[in-house]
Amino acid sequence: LPSLTMHPVMMGLFQRALRLRTSLRHLCLCSTVSTKARLPLAALKSPFLNFGSCREQHVGAVGSKSLPDGAPKRLPFSRVTKEDVDFFKKILPGRTITDPDLVESSNVDWLKSVRGSSEILLRPQTTEEVSQILRYCNNRNLAVNPQGGNTGLVGGSVPVYDEIILSTSLMKNINSFDDISGILTCEAGCVLENLSLYLEDRGYMMPLDLGAKGSCQIGGNVATNAGGLRLLRYGSLHGTVLGLEVVLADGQVLDCLSTLRKDNTGYDLKQLFIGSEGTLGVITAVSILCPPKPKSVNVVFLGCETFECLLKTFQLCKGMLGEILSAFEFLDSECMRLLNTHLKLANPISDCPFYIVIETSGSDPNHDSEKLHSFLEEAMTTLLVTDGTVATEEAKIKALWSMRERVTEALTHDGFTYKYDISLPVERIYQLVTEMRQHLGDRAKSVVGYGHVGDGNLHLNITSPAKDPSLLAAIEPFVYEWTAKFQGSISAEHGLGLKKRNYIYYSKQSQAVALMGHIKALLDPKGILNPYKTLPDKLR
Amino acid sequence: MSGRVLVGVKRVIDYAVKIRVKPDNSGIVTDGVKHSMNPFCEIAVEEAVKMKEKKLIKEVVAVSCGPQQSQETIRTALAMGADRGIHVEVSGKDYETLGPLQVSKIMAALAKKEDAQLIILGKQAIDDDCNQTGQMTAALLDWPQGTFASEVSLEGDKIKVVREIDGGLETIKINTPAVLTADLRLNTPRYATLPNIMKAKKKKIANVKPADLGVDLTSRLEVLRVDEPPQRQAGMKVETVEDLVGKLKESGKV
Question: Which InterPro entries does the entry link to (chain A) (predicted)?
């Protein structure tokens, strides 16, 4: 183990982490046994395993100001004093917000499932201001919660206690765009949809697209390594981000804002920050490689009888549409029912057990439409697909996409939603949904499955009329153990945030997590950046 | 009433596309721009297909006047359920000056040639907003017209039409043969389903020249200039009510 000069608190935790590893090896053995097996009582009681409190991760009924149940204990950070507020007001005049009504919306996440009690919201406009803020907070041992569009789904974007909220919303300049290489450089607070519109005017587009595009900011997208609908075609942010400017916990500005496509000079530091969920540094600027806007886009909405047919359709699709395929999403009939009921969106085709949304993007409408029609004819004659429709006009394309993009919204109208974002071998994806339905029986109101089937990513959602601890107990750890059984990921793209931080061991070896802890300690010795998130409690 | 219905479908720039004026102000840029079926024409096709499904009419014929690409628009109508198509070929200069008068002459000639009992058109096209073709076609044929239709019901050899007018809704009964123009609330056009899209490929589209119909395409109109609407000026933010009143007084508004 590297010898590091560490904060005494970190040292103690680090040693505890060693003991954790041994205990967890024991646990891992247990969890590969059938899901019905009981964990040994001793293991459950062990402070390191903490699986009891994992069940209460959906913290704090919105509205309660008391200690959120199941949340980690407040770490010994300093509390914000009048002197602190005066300092911030001096460096950020008019942009230091202490009015509780104005801070309120930044204390609650988009799902309205977690609420913090921060009393101060800062809105820097420049990297220099962010640097000054962090330098000061580091010296004063004040915790900071970086916040972009606040659209995250795992409670990572809002404070748990009184962390100072550092919003990037005012850092929304586009610095440069090179229309030969397609490289865009912009500040972290740029809203994804605005970047898309800017690029579309210039014949390009963003390499990622997600339902939250109207609100989410690029800094947050990078910090969470957002996936989305186009990952299948353009890859992840780990590939498309060329450079970052990051402010570290002590206020140092790390300028890795390169606009080079290829640069093998030393360790690629930006990769550390992509997906770090604001715990290693605050991203203040991004340079990203953007693909040309396709001249021809087709969207197809298909219906399949079985999941096997759906998977065969995917194989056929890859074979016949390969180079022009840009998205392959699915939703089940339960999702369609929710869309019909809550959002009054009519089914574009007849009712089927499974629906697929396929998008093609290419440079030649004739070429693409020929390929598409051959594929559709093949799919229909071999009965892989029982019904479908095609759209080439923008209005119809938007209408078909909304059948997939608005499922999340429809769920919020169905009741309290338990959301799971799982990566699995593609042939297992729907098995989890059917087994969960059987397992829960009538305890749940709706159990739906949808997602980026092309990437092996399932969004499993379970609703109940109100928050229901006994339902949650039935869902977890069943869903995580099931996922671990097939070496899947318990968080494919949503990240760990607050809600899933303690489940990391279902998908990562303890040695790996321990190394993450070292890196965190190295870059943020006082642990002020987005505490209580991403890394498990017992590693702190 | 049984028989043949002619539906006019126009190929226009897709309504979601940003329109750009040509640098020489002679017209708008159409090259490489996404085109699709005029939304009101979609509604007209849907109405005709619905009538056929209810067995009130026998055949739906989709007609489009324009260059080669108009065939795509006819294919869309076929995929929605039209039985066959007629492409009246108009291209080049003739196409640039093609307007409601010429199209209505073409529709009238086709109606006679095809022995149509009903012509359904969209109330207007979203590119020129003329709202004239339906009315002119009815006049040339001396047929009754039910325009801005939001509800249509065939009753024997008469048609009851509920029209959207400024004061509300007007219900009229007209004889057949007749011309109807579809308004927004007449129906919701269906998505063309895959089986129909496949079938549509095999349906026939006949090719006809305006000269064959004895139609003269000369236009009596000349477009002098096309300009973009004036840019919206930015507003001004004021800090206090006094400021607001002051500014209003300054600009002479108060």
Answer: FAD-bd_oxidored_4_C, FAD-bd_PCMH, FAD-bd_PCMH-like_sf, FAD-bd_PCMH_sub1, FAD-bd_PCMH_sub2, FAD-linked_Oxase-like_C, FAD-oxidored/transferase_4, Oxid_FAD_bind_N
The residue length of chain B stands at 254
- State yes or no: cis peptide before B177, omega within 30 of 0: yes
DSSP state of B187: -
Name the one residue in this structure whose structure tokens are 């963003």.
Answer: A206
pLDDT of residue A18: 42
Cα A540 to chain centroid, rounded: 22
Cβ–Cβ below 8 Å for B194 and A390:
yes
Tell me the shortest Cα–Cα distance from A338 to chain B, in angstroms: 20
In which residue are the tokens 């030649």 written? A364
Q: Does residue B40 contact residue B12 with C-beta atoms inside 8 Å?
A: no
C-alpha R_g of chain B: 22
Q: Is there a contact between B34 and A389 if contact means CB atoms under 8 Å apart?
A: no
* Helix ranges, A263-393 (H): 270-273, 307-321, 333-343, 365-381
Q: Which residues have a Cβ under 8 Å from the Cβ of A438 and sit 6 or more positions away?
A: none
CB A282 within 8 A of CB A146: yes
ipTM: 0.76
CA distances for A158 relative to A95, A148, A152, angstroms: 18, 10, 9
DSSP state of A428: G
Residue type, A528: I
Among A350, A389, A402, most B C-beta atoms within 10 A, so best to mutate, is A389
Cβ distance A394 to B16 less than 8 Å, yes or no, reads yes
Interior CA angle at B73 toward B226 and B123, to 5°? 60
- Alpha-carbon distance of A504 to B254, in angstroms, equals 66
Distance CA A334, CA A460 (A): 11
Residue pLDDT, tens place only, B159-178: 999 999 999 999 999 999 99
* B84 three-class SS: strand
The answer to whether the Cβ–Cβ distance between A393 and B34 falls below 8 Å is yes
The token pair at A6 is 């560490």
Q: Is the pLDDT of residue A394 over 90?
A: no
Copy the structure tokens of residue A157.
């974007």
| Residue found by looking up tokens 């801070």 in the block | A103
- The angle, 0 to 180 degrees and rounded to 10, between the axes of the packed helices A127-140 and A82-91 is 160
Average pLDDT over every residue of A386-398: 88
Q: How do residues B22-65 score in pLDDT, each as one tens digit?
A: 999 999 999 888 889 999 999 999 999 999 999 999 999 999 99
